[in-house]
Amino acid sequence: MSRFFSEKFNSLDPYVPGEQPRDMKYVKLNTNESPYPPSPEVLASMSPENAGKLRLYPDPESAALKDAIGKAEGLGRENVYVANGSDDILNFAFMAFSKPGGKVYFPDLTYGFYPVFAALHGLEAVEIPVKEDFSIDPADYFGADGMVVIANPNAPTGRILQLDDIRKILENNRDNVVLIDEAYVDFGAESAVCLTGEYDNLLVCRTYSKSRSMAGARLGYALGDKALIADLETLKFSTNPYNINILTQLAGIAAMESEEYYRDRCLAIQATREKTAAELIKRGFTVIPSMANFIFVKSDRISGEDLYRGLRERGVLIRHFDKERIKDYNRVTIGTDEEMDIFLCCVDEMLKGASK
Ligand SMILES: *Cc1c(COP(=O)(O)O)cnc(C)c1O
User: Fold this and answer.
1) Gap from CA of 155 to ligand 1 centroid (Å)
2) Spatial contact of 155 and 206, defined as CB atoms under 8 Å apart
3) Which of 114, 209, 245, 340 lies at a 20 to 30 A Cα distance from 126?
4) DSSP H or E run through 50
5) With contact defined as beta carbons under 8 Å apart, do 35 and 185 qualify?
6) Is any ligand 1 atom within 6 A of the Cβ of residue 233?
7) pTM for this one?
Protein backbone atom coordinates (compact mmCIF):
# COMPACT_ATOMS: atom_id res chain seq x y z
CA MET A 1 0.00 0.00 0.00
CA SER A 2 1.38 3.42 -0.89
CA ARG A 3 1.23 6.26 1.60
CA PHE A 4 -1.19 7.97 -0.79
CA PHE A 5 -3.94 5.33 -0.69
CA SER A 6 -7.11 6.78 0.77
CA GLU A 7 -7.75 5.66 4.33
CA LYS A 8 -11.29 4.95 3.17
CA PHE A 9 -9.89 1.82 1.55
CA ASN A 10 -7.30 0.84 4.17
CA SER A 11 -9.12 -2.26 5.26
CA LEU A 12 -10.49 -3.31 1.89
CA ASP A 13 -10.10 -7.04 1.34
CA PRO A 14 -10.36 -7.55 -2.45
CA TYR A 15 -12.21 -10.43 -4.08
CA VAL A 16 -10.00 -13.39 -4.99
CA PRO A 17 -11.06 -14.90 -8.34
CA GLY A 18 -10.70 -18.64 -8.94
CA GLU A 19 -7.23 -19.49 -10.21
CA GLN A 20 -6.50 -19.25 -13.95
CA PRO A 21 -3.13 -21.02 -14.05
CA ARG A 22 -1.08 -20.90 -17.26
CA ASP A 23 1.61 -23.42 -16.27
CA MET A 24 -0.06 -26.44 -17.87
CA LYS A 25 -3.33 -27.56 -19.39
CA TYR A 26 -5.86 -28.44 -16.70
CA VAL A 27 -9.34 -29.89 -16.82
CA LYS A 28 -10.78 -26.62 -15.62
CA LEU A 29 -13.77 -27.11 -13.34
CA ASN A 30 -13.14 -24.18 -10.98
CA THR A 31 -14.70 -20.97 -12.32
CA ASN A 32 -18.04 -22.05 -13.81
CA GLU A 33 -17.17 -21.25 -17.40
CA SER A 34 -19.01 -23.13 -20.12
CA PRO A 35 -17.12 -26.06 -21.65
CA TYR A 36 -18.70 -25.24 -25.02
CA PRO A 37 -17.60 -22.52 -27.46
CA PRO A 38 -19.68 -19.42 -28.20
CA SER A 39 -22.26 -19.87 -30.98
CA PRO A 40 -21.12 -19.78 -34.64
CA GLU A 41 -22.93 -16.44 -34.99
CA VAL A 42 -20.89 -14.99 -32.13
CA LEU A 43 -17.66 -16.25 -33.69
CA ALA A 44 -18.67 -14.77 -37.05
CA SER A 45 -19.25 -11.37 -35.41
CA MET A 46 -15.53 -11.21 -34.59
CA SER A 47 -14.73 -10.57 -38.27
CA PRO A 48 -11.92 -8.39 -39.66
CA GLU A 49 -14.63 -6.12 -41.01
CA ASN A 50 -16.14 -5.62 -37.56
CA ALA A 51 -12.68 -5.27 -36.00
CA GLY A 52 -12.20 -2.33 -38.38
CA LYS A 53 -14.96 -0.57 -36.46
CA LEU A 54 -12.64 -0.36 -33.44
CA ARG A 55 -11.38 2.94 -34.90
CA LEU A 56 -14.49 4.74 -33.68
CA TYR A 57 -16.02 5.00 -30.24
CA PRO A 58 -18.83 2.50 -29.70
CA ASP A 59 -22.45 3.55 -29.25
CA PRO A 60 -22.51 4.81 -25.64
CA GLU A 61 -26.18 3.82 -25.39
CA SER A 62 -25.51 0.26 -26.65
CA ALA A 63 -28.95 0.66 -28.23
CA ALA A 64 -28.81 -2.26 -30.68
CA LEU A 65 -27.54 -4.59 -27.97
CA LYS A 66 -30.23 -3.46 -25.53
CA ASP A 67 -32.86 -3.99 -28.21
CA ALA A 68 -31.62 -7.53 -28.86
CA ILE A 69 -31.68 -8.32 -25.13
CA GLY A 70 -35.07 -6.63 -24.68
CA LYS A 71 -36.50 -8.64 -27.55
CA ALA A 72 -35.25 -11.91 -26.05
CA GLU A 73 -36.61 -11.00 -22.61
CA GLY A 74 -39.88 -9.43 -23.73
CA LEU A 75 -38.93 -5.98 -22.37
CA GLY A 76 -38.21 -2.56 -23.81
CA ARG A 77 -34.82 -0.92 -24.27
CA GLU A 78 -35.56 1.30 -21.27
CA ASN A 79 -35.74 -1.78 -19.04
CA VAL A 80 -32.24 -2.99 -19.98
CA TYR A 81 -28.85 -1.92 -18.65
CA VAL A 82 -25.60 -3.38 -20.01
CA ALA A 83 -22.15 -3.48 -18.40
CA ASN A 84 -18.74 -5.17 -18.40
CA GLY A 85 -19.93 -8.34 -16.77
CA SER A 86 -22.48 -8.54 -14.00
CA ASP A 87 -19.76 -7.71 -11.45
CA ASP A 88 -19.88 -4.21 -12.90
CA ILE A 89 -23.64 -4.08 -12.40
CA LEU A 90 -23.37 -5.32 -8.82
CA ASN A 91 -20.83 -2.60 -8.12
CA PHE A 92 -23.16 0.11 -9.40
CA ALA A 93 -26.21 -1.38 -7.69
CA PHE A 94 -24.46 -1.42 -4.30
CA MET A 95 -23.38 2.17 -4.96
CA ALA A 96 -26.73 3.37 -6.24
CA PHE A 97 -29.36 1.74 -4.08
CA SER A 98 -28.05 2.02 -0.52
CA LYS A 99 -28.11 4.89 1.95
CA PRO A 100 -24.65 6.21 2.82
CA GLY A 101 -23.37 4.01 5.65
CA GLY A 102 -26.53 1.90 5.38
CA LYS A 103 -27.04 -1.84 5.37
CA VAL A 104 -27.13 -4.47 2.66
CA TYR A 105 -28.56 -7.97 3.26
CA PHE A 106 -27.40 -11.23 1.69
CA PRO A 107 -26.90 -14.88 2.71
CA ASP A 108 -23.78 -15.89 4.65
CA LEU A 109 -23.04 -18.46 1.97
CA THR A 110 -23.16 -16.77 -1.40
CA TYR A 111 -21.09 -15.07 -4.08
CA GLY A 112 -17.90 -13.85 -2.40
CA PHE A 113 -17.99 -10.50 -4.16
CA TYR A 114 -21.02 -9.17 -2.24
CA PRO A 115 -19.11 -8.46 1.00
CA VAL A 116 -16.37 -6.79 -1.03
CA PHE A 117 -18.81 -4.40 -2.71
CA ALA A 118 -20.39 -3.67 0.66
CA ALA A 119 -16.99 -2.74 2.10
CA LEU A 120 -16.02 -0.74 -1.00
CA HIS A 121 -19.11 1.44 -0.62
CA GLY A 122 -18.93 1.73 3.16
CA LEU A 123 -22.03 -0.37 3.79
CA GLU A 124 -22.73 -2.70 6.66
CA ALA A 125 -23.06 -6.27 5.35
CA VAL A 126 -25.82 -8.13 7.12
CA GLU A 127 -25.03 -11.78 6.39
CA ILE A 128 -28.04 -13.98 7.03
CA PRO A 129 -27.20 -17.64 7.69
CA VAL A 130 -28.67 -20.08 5.20
CA LYS A 131 -30.38 -23.08 6.76
CA GLU A 132 -28.61 -26.32 7.62
CA ASP A 133 -29.42 -27.75 4.17
CA PHE A 134 -28.10 -24.51 2.59
CA SER A 135 -31.58 -23.35 1.56
CA ILE A 136 -32.68 -19.73 2.02
CA ASP A 137 -35.67 -18.86 4.23
CA PRO A 138 -37.44 -15.95 2.50
CA ALA A 139 -38.88 -14.72 5.81
CA ASP A 140 -35.33 -13.88 6.97
CA TYR A 141 -35.35 -11.03 4.45
CA PHE A 142 -38.76 -9.54 5.23
CA GLY A 143 -38.70 -5.90 6.33
CA ALA A 144 -34.98 -5.42 5.72
CA ASP A 145 -33.43 -2.02 6.38
CA GLY A 146 -31.53 -1.76 3.10
CA MET A 147 -30.92 -3.46 -0.23
CA VAL A 148 -31.39 -7.25 -0.41
CA VAL A 149 -29.11 -9.27 -2.71
CA ILE A 150 -29.79 -12.91 -3.49
CA ALA A 151 -28.17 -15.11 -6.11
CA ASN A 152 -30.75 -17.48 -7.60
CA PRO A 153 -29.59 -20.19 -8.03
CA ASN A 154 -27.27 -19.42 -5.17
CA ALA A 155 -23.50 -19.88 -5.43
CA PRO A 156 -21.66 -21.97 -4.37
CA THR A 157 -24.53 -24.18 -3.25
CA GLY A 158 -26.64 -24.37 -6.45
CA ARG A 159 -29.83 -24.17 -4.39
CA ILE A 160 -32.81 -22.21 -5.71
CA LEU A 161 -35.58 -20.01 -4.38
CA GLN A 162 -39.05 -20.48 -5.89
CA LEU A 163 -40.66 -17.53 -7.64
CA ASP A 164 -43.35 -17.38 -4.95
CA ASP A 165 -40.68 -16.86 -2.32
CA ILE A 166 -39.03 -14.09 -4.33
CA ARG A 167 -42.43 -12.45 -4.64
CA LYS A 168 -42.83 -12.58 -0.86
CA ILE A 169 -39.43 -10.96 -0.37
CA LEU A 170 -40.42 -8.19 -2.81
CA GLU A 171 -43.79 -7.70 -1.11
CA ASN A 172 -42.09 -7.31 2.25
CA ASN A 173 -39.44 -4.88 1.00
CA ARG A 174 -41.41 -2.28 -0.92
CA ASP A 175 -38.93 0.43 0.04
CA ASN A 176 -35.76 -1.55 -0.67
CA VAL A 177 -34.24 -2.66 -3.91
CA VAL A 178 -34.20 -6.46 -4.16
CA LEU A 179 -31.44 -7.59 -6.50
CA ILE A 180 -31.78 -11.12 -7.85
CA ASP A 181 -28.48 -12.25 -9.36
CA GLU A 182 -29.41 -14.76 -12.05
CA ALA A 183 -25.90 -15.67 -13.24
CA TYR A 184 -26.95 -19.35 -13.32
CA VAL A 185 -30.66 -19.14 -14.11
CA ASP A 186 -30.35 -20.74 -17.56
CA PHE A 187 -29.48 -24.14 -16.11
CA GLY A 188 -32.96 -25.03 -14.93
CA ALA A 189 -34.22 -22.38 -12.48
CA GLU A 190 -37.14 -20.02 -12.98
CA SER A 191 -36.35 -16.37 -13.73
CA ALA A 192 -37.84 -13.48 -11.78
CA VAL A 193 -37.83 -11.25 -14.88
CA CYS A 194 -41.59 -11.74 -15.25
CA LEU A 195 -42.01 -9.82 -11.96
CA THR A 196 -40.13 -6.69 -13.09
CA GLY A 197 -43.30 -5.10 -14.49
CA GLU A 198 -45.08 -5.58 -11.19
CA TYR A 199 -42.35 -4.53 -8.75
CA ASP A 200 -40.43 -1.30 -9.26
CA ASN A 201 -37.96 -2.43 -6.57
CA LEU A 202 -36.79 -5.55 -8.44
CA LEU A 203 -33.48 -5.59 -10.31
CA VAL A 204 -32.52 -8.82 -12.08
CA CYS A 205 -28.85 -9.34 -13.02
CA ARG A 206 -27.68 -11.61 -15.81
CA THR A 207 -24.36 -12.46 -17.40
CA TYR A 208 -23.04 -13.79 -20.69
CA SER A 209 -20.19 -15.43 -18.78
CA LYS A 210 -21.75 -18.76 -17.91
CA SER A 211 -24.60 -20.00 -20.10
CA ARG A 212 -23.48 -18.00 -23.16
CA SER A 213 -19.84 -19.12 -23.14
CA MET A 214 -18.52 -15.55 -23.16
CA ALA A 215 -16.69 -15.08 -19.85
CA GLY A 216 -13.78 -13.57 -21.77
CA ALA A 217 -15.98 -10.94 -23.43
CA ARG A 218 -17.06 -9.36 -20.11
CA LEU A 219 -20.72 -8.68 -20.73
CA GLY A 220 -23.64 -8.63 -18.32
CA TYR A 221 -27.05 -7.00 -18.17
CA ALA A 222 -29.66 -5.90 -15.70
CA LEU A 223 -33.43 -5.88 -16.16
CA GLY A 224 -35.91 -3.84 -14.18
CA ASP A 225 -38.18 -0.84 -13.90
CA LYS A 226 -37.05 1.99 -16.15
CA ALA A 227 -36.34 4.31 -13.21
CA LEU A 228 -33.91 1.80 -11.69
CA ILE A 229 -32.23 1.36 -15.07
CA ALA A 230 -31.98 5.15 -15.48
CA ASP A 231 -30.16 5.36 -12.13
CA LEU A 232 -27.57 2.83 -13.32
CA GLU A 233 -27.20 4.85 -16.54
CA THR A 234 -26.57 7.98 -14.47
CA LEU A 235 -23.66 6.26 -12.73
CA LYS A 236 -22.36 4.88 -16.02
CA PHE A 237 -22.41 8.28 -17.72
CA SER A 238 -20.60 9.65 -14.65
CA THR A 239 -17.79 7.12 -14.93
CA ASN A 240 -17.35 5.30 -18.24
CA PRO A 241 -19.93 6.11 -20.95
CA TYR A 242 -18.32 3.87 -23.59
CA ASN A 243 -18.30 0.88 -21.28
CA ILE A 244 -19.03 -1.86 -23.83
CA ASN A 245 -16.56 -2.11 -26.71
CA ILE A 246 -17.93 -2.42 -30.22
CA LEU A 247 -16.93 -6.06 -30.77
CA THR A 248 -18.55 -7.13 -27.53
CA GLN A 249 -21.74 -5.25 -28.42
CA LEU A 250 -21.87 -7.12 -31.74
CA ALA A 251 -21.08 -10.47 -30.10
CA GLY A 252 -23.78 -9.82 -27.50
CA ILE A 253 -26.36 -9.23 -30.22
CA ALA A 254 -25.27 -12.37 -32.07
CA ALA A 255 -25.57 -14.43 -28.88
CA MET A 256 -29.12 -13.20 -28.30
CA GLU A 257 -29.91 -14.37 -31.82
CA SER A 258 -28.53 -17.87 -31.12
CA GLU A 259 -31.13 -18.93 -28.55
CA GLU A 260 -31.45 -22.47 -29.87
CA TYR A 261 -27.72 -23.09 -29.85
CA TYR A 262 -27.43 -21.99 -26.23
CA ARG A 263 -30.57 -23.77 -25.10
CA ASP A 264 -29.13 -27.06 -26.41
CA ARG A 265 -25.80 -26.47 -24.63
CA CYS A 266 -27.57 -25.63 -21.36
CA LEU A 267 -29.60 -28.84 -21.63
CA ALA A 268 -26.41 -30.81 -22.27
CA ILE A 269 -24.81 -29.28 -19.18
CA GLN A 270 -27.88 -30.15 -17.08
CA ALA A 271 -27.77 -33.77 -18.30
CA THR A 272 -24.04 -34.01 -17.50
CA ARG A 273 -24.73 -32.44 -14.09
CA GLU A 274 -27.30 -35.07 -13.17
CA LYS A 275 -25.07 -37.89 -14.42
CA THR A 276 -22.06 -36.61 -12.48
CA ALA A 277 -24.12 -36.11 -9.32
CA ALA A 278 -25.44 -39.68 -9.53
CA GLU A 279 -21.91 -41.04 -9.97
CA LEU A 280 -20.66 -39.11 -6.94
CA ILE A 281 -23.59 -40.24 -4.80
CA LYS A 282 -22.72 -43.83 -5.76
CA ARG A 283 -19.26 -43.15 -4.35
CA GLY A 284 -20.73 -41.96 -1.05
CA PHE A 285 -20.54 -38.21 -1.69
CA THR A 286 -23.07 -35.71 -0.37
CA VAL A 287 -24.25 -33.68 -3.37
CA ILE A 288 -26.41 -30.59 -2.78
CA PRO A 289 -29.26 -30.53 -5.35
CA SER A 290 -28.15 -27.97 -7.94
CA MET A 291 -29.90 -25.95 -10.64
CA ALA A 292 -26.62 -24.36 -11.73
CA ASN A 293 -23.69 -25.41 -13.93
CA PHE A 294 -21.81 -26.64 -10.88
CA ILE A 295 -22.35 -29.00 -7.97
CA PHE A 296 -21.39 -28.54 -4.35
CA VAL A 297 -20.07 -31.80 -2.95
CA LYS A 298 -18.36 -33.43 0.02
CA SER A 299 -17.03 -36.87 0.77
CA ASP A 300 -16.96 -38.56 4.16
CA ARG A 301 -13.75 -40.33 3.15
CA ILE A 302 -11.56 -37.45 2.11
CA SER A 303 -11.42 -33.85 3.33
CA GLY A 304 -12.40 -30.97 1.06
CA GLU A 305 -8.86 -29.63 1.10
CA ASP A 306 -7.27 -33.02 0.29
CA LEU A 307 -9.69 -33.63 -2.57
CA TYR A 308 -8.92 -30.22 -4.02
CA ARG A 309 -5.14 -30.71 -3.71
CA GLY A 310 -5.14 -34.29 -4.99
CA LEU A 311 -7.18 -33.36 -8.04
CA ARG A 312 -4.93 -30.39 -8.75
CA GLU A 313 -1.89 -32.69 -8.75
CA ARG A 314 -3.73 -34.83 -11.27
CA GLY A 315 -4.46 -31.85 -13.52
CA VAL A 316 -8.09 -31.25 -12.50
CA LEU A 317 -9.03 -27.88 -10.97
CA ILE A 318 -12.07 -27.49 -8.72
CA ARG A 319 -12.92 -24.68 -6.27
CA HIS A 320 -12.26 -25.00 -2.56
CA PHE A 321 -13.35 -22.34 -0.06
CA ASP A 322 -11.63 -21.87 3.28
CA LYS A 323 -14.76 -20.63 5.04
CA GLU A 324 -15.31 -22.74 8.18
CA ARG A 325 -18.92 -23.70 7.45
CA ILE A 326 -18.15 -25.16 4.02
CA LYS A 327 -14.53 -26.27 4.31
CA ASP A 328 -15.49 -29.92 3.78
CA TYR A 329 -17.11 -29.07 0.45
CA ASN A 330 -15.85 -28.31 -3.01
CA ARG A 331 -17.60 -26.64 -5.90
CA VAL A 332 -17.21 -28.55 -9.15
CA THR A 333 -18.08 -26.88 -12.45
CA ILE A 334 -19.90 -29.10 -14.94
CA GLY A 335 -17.71 -29.61 -17.99
CA THR A 336 -18.23 -31.92 -20.97
CA ASP A 337 -19.04 -35.60 -20.37
CA GLU A 338 -15.41 -36.41 -21.21
CA GLU A 339 -14.09 -33.91 -18.68
CA MET A 340 -16.38 -35.26 -15.98
CA ASP A 341 -15.19 -38.80 -16.75
CA ILE A 342 -11.60 -37.66 -16.17
CA PHE A 343 -12.70 -35.98 -12.93
CA LEU A 344 -14.47 -39.14 -11.71
CA CYS A 345 -11.48 -41.29 -12.67
CA CYS A 346 -9.18 -39.11 -10.56
CA VAL A 347 -11.68 -39.18 -7.67
CA ASP A 348 -11.68 -43.00 -7.81
CA GLU A 349 -7.91 -43.08 -7.79
CA MET A 350 -7.83 -40.88 -4.70
CA LEU A 351 -10.58 -42.72 -2.85
CA LYS A 352 -8.64 -45.98 -3.27
CA GLY A 353 -5.85 -44.62 -1.13
CA ALA A 354 -7.98 -42.49 1.18
CA SER A 355 -8.62 -42.99 4.84
CA LYS A 356 -9.99 -39.97 6.63
C1 LIG B 1 -19.94 -15.47 -12.15
C2 LIG B 1 -20.86 -14.68 -11.29
C3 LIG B 1 -21.02 -13.30 -11.47
C4 LIG B 1 -20.10 -12.48 -12.33
O5 LIG B 1 -20.27 -12.63 -13.62
P6 LIG B 1 -19.53 -11.71 -14.67
O7 LIG B 1 -20.64 -11.34 -15.58
O8 LIG B 1 -18.50 -12.58 -15.30
O9 LIG B 1 -18.95 -10.51 -13.98
C10 LIG B 1 -21.98 -12.64 -10.73
N11 LIG B 1 -22.71 -13.30 -9.82
C12 LIG B 1 -22.55 -14.60 -9.59
C13 LIG B 1 -23.39 -15.27 -8.55
C14 LIG B 1 -21.61 -15.32 -10.31
O15 LIG B 1 -21.41 -16.61 -10.05
Assistant:
1) 10
2) no
3) 209
4) helix 48-51
5) no
6) no
7) 0.96
